Amino acid sequence: MIEINAVTKRYGSTTAVSGLTFTVRPGVVTGFLGPNGAGKTTTMRMILGLDEPDSGAVTVNGRPPRAHAAPLRQIGGMLDPRAVHPARSAYHHLLALAQTAGIGRSRVGEVIEAAGLRGVAGRPAGGFSLGMAQRLGIAAALLGDPATVVLDEPVNGLDVEGIRWIRGLLADLAARGKTVFVSSHLMSEIAQTATHLIVIGRGRLLADTSVDEFLAAAAPPAVRVRSSDQDALATLLRAPGVRVTPANGGALAVSGLTAPRIGAAAAAAGITVLELATEQASLEDAFVDLTQDAVEFRPTPRPPAGPSLEETK
Amino acid sequence: MTTRTQDQGRVPATVPAYPRPQKVTQARVLRSEWTKLRTQPSVRWALLSAVILVIGFGVGYSLLRAARPPRGAAAAAFDPASVSLAGVQLAQIAAGVLGVLLITSEYATGLIRATFTAVPRRLPILWGKAATLAAATAAVSLPAALAAFVAGQAILRRHHLAVPLSHPGVARAVLGSALYLAVAGLLGLGLGALLRSTAGGISALFGLLFAVPIAVGFLPGTWPADAGKFLPAPAGQAVTTAAPDPASSLPPWAGFGLFCAYAAAVLGLAAIRMRRGDA
Asked: What pLDDT, in 10s, does the model give residues A37-95?
């Protein structure tokens, strides 16, 4: 169980996290989603006891992260898979961490085996591929069989096999009653890994919900329609609660109306419908919709939200 | 290619339970830091270079002085033990830089985050590093200093300039050389932990050991001798000299004690910074 209560964290004049409150419960995989620079890593650093909040409180399994007598038993974390001494072998990296808590060599062997690192454990960790480094970081996080597991972007750099492995591993940990908190900046990734979702942007909480609810709420389906007279159809359909925007291929994207009603309206006006399809917005669209106001760095000026056909002419 | 099997593919996505208690203790952290020290190749190179500098420079300087033996008043002031232990002056660079690197390499690679996640009270890490570094440096330096002394005296003996180990202060100077190098390493460790930067730590170390004595040497009158002996390097090196000059040097153990106090002060400041605030 991770409890974040009204936490604010500043670095100099930059406010990384502001008034953040949420709880990560045991027994499920909770995804932690946000654009780059949203404050995910800052939050995770505070959960691991590396940074202290300026105000508010962080507790892990009921106590401040730095107050545990047996920390590896309580919190296992990975922030950066490259954070190893490059010349030290993976085995000795894990052994040194294990020895701080009196964890024996046989347990080190177990996590090496579980992470699929048996063949490379004797090699210097600096020579690892990103995928192998991720496995090493995850192995380190699991050394003490911790009640709470916190992983920053664990899927980065893994191949298909590795991604399948980590998803199975996280599901297994959750099924064993552990608190599993995994960050990502990719919605599609998190949707396949997590069942619960915390979304932040610019250091503030945007959503605390199940993945299913989040998708249903954030991404209403749109209808794609192409007809003999797009301008007339757009004028015809426009009404309060209905949004008509140009889509690719000369089509219109209509939200707020169902496909049968659009078809019927076109028929009544004598407009020939050439194409009519309901489209579920993609996961990434849902994410972008939610966070577009909260993206810190934007490469190009943002177009006005939902431009109508008229406005873009 | 097709016959090569991927180990990872057959690994079940689970990790066995491990219900044993896992309390962090200083003794366990000490063991962990020892593992880190002995599995970091740069440590071996730094200690090896310290040994080579102590013996190599000691032998070289002894040969040089044997080739131009002192005469008259210079002969009376000649300190054969110090000549053969002259390499300590250079080896302190290796020992100090090793101390800096031992902690700044963890900050530079980010390993410190994993370390502090395992030991969130943090200070046991600093004490563990200090103890293993001092022990390893002293253990390597003592035989090196002894070898440099024996070899140097063998060279000087041909010119009847040698002293035996039983001569007053000589055994203490040999032992003191090893202790001085160990504490120079601790000074580096403290500076590295305080500044969290390899370049900053090494610069501060060189400044403290070499630049400050040079600057004080420019002072007028008897200032250089009066104030200079209280600076870290001259104070610490009193213990590496068989018969330190009372005018320009503290008594051996008092000087070494002051050198230890400097290192302890820097380590104390580093501990305050390490414990508080962000990693």
From this structure: 899 999 999 999 999 999 999 999 999 999 999 999 999 999 999 999 999 999 999 99
Put simply, the answer to whether B120 touches A118 (Cβ < 8 Å) is: no
Residue A99 is nearest to which of B7, B11, B28, comparing CB atoms?
B28
Diameter of chain A by CA atoms?
A: 80
CATH superfamily of A2-216: P-loop containing nucleotide triphosphate hydrolases (3.40.50.300)
pLDDT digit string, tens, across residues A251-284: 888 888 888 888 998 998 889 999 888 876 666 7
Q: What angle do CA B268, A96, A62 make, to 5 degrees?
A: 75
Q: How many A/B residue pairs have CB atoms within 8 Å?
A: 160
Indicate the pairing of strand A2-11 with strand A55-60.
antiparallel
Reported pTM: 0.85
Angle at B8 between CA B5 and CA B12, to 5 degrees: 120
Number of structural domains chain B divides into: 1
Tally of CA atoms within 13 A in the half-sphere of A42 that contains its CB:
23
Provide the domain limits for residue B49: 26-68+78-275
What six digits make up the tokens of B250? 């503290």
Radius of gyration of chain B (CA): 23
| Strand segments (E) across A239-297 | 243-246, 252-255, 273-279
The verdict on B31 touching A (C-beta cutoff 8 Å) is yes
Q: Is the CB of B21 inside 8 Å of chain A's CB atoms?
A: yes
What is the rounded (10 degree) CA torsion for B77, B81, B83, B88?
Answer: -130
- Residue B187 corresponds to which tokens in the numbers above? 């000074």
